[in-house]
Amino acid sequence: MATTEPRAQALSIGEVARRTGLSVHALRFYEREGLLVGPVRRTAGGRRRYTEVDVDWLLICVKLRESGMPLAELKRFAELVRQGPGNEAERLQLLDAHQQRVEAQIRALEECRSVIAWKTSVYAEHLARGEAGGLWDPTA
User: Fold this and answer.
1) 102-129: buried (b, 16+ CB within 10 Å) or exposed (e) per residue?
2) Which residues form the HTH merR-type domain (predicted)?
3) Which of 15, 65, 77, 83 holds its CA 20 to 30 A away from the CA of 89?
C-alpha cells in the first residue's frame, strides 16, 4: 500500500513577506544572492511558491541580519546548509564567531545604558531639588 505525504502548503511571496517582516523586494534579493537553502519553486505562470521550511529559514536569516551578521557570512552559512551534512563544525565556527560579536555589542550597550541611567538620575535629582541651573551649561 502506497503512502502519500501531506502536500506542503505553497505560500505566495506576499504571504512570506507578511510572515517574515521582509519586503517582497528583500525576498527577491535573498533569492538572487543565494541566501535561501533551497530553490524557490514556481508555478506554471512563474509565480514564486514558498514552503514552511523556506519561512523557517528566512526567520533565522532575519535574526542573523538584525544582529549584525554580515551578508557574506550569511551567504556562507546558507551555502554550508545547502551542502548538507558533514560541515557542521564550520557552521558552528561561523555562528560562534557571530555570537561572540553580538555578546560584545551587548556588553558595550549595557555600559552605554549604565552611563545614560546615571546621567538621567543626576538630572532628575537636580530637577526635583530645583537645582537644575548650571548642569552642563557651556555658557556658565
Assistant:
1) eeeeeeeeeeeeeeeeeeeeeeeeeeee
2) 10-80
3) 65
Q: Which pTM value belongs to this model?
A: 0.79
Quote the cell numbers at residue 91. Answer: 557552521
**Do residues 49 and 40 lie in contact, with contact meaning Cβ atoms separated by under 8 Å?**
yes
Report the distance separating Cα 121 and Cα 124, nearest Å.
5
pLDDT digits (tens, 9 = 90+) for 91-105: 999 999 999 999 999
Q: C-alpha dihedral over 89, 99, 73, 83, to 10 degrees?
A: 30
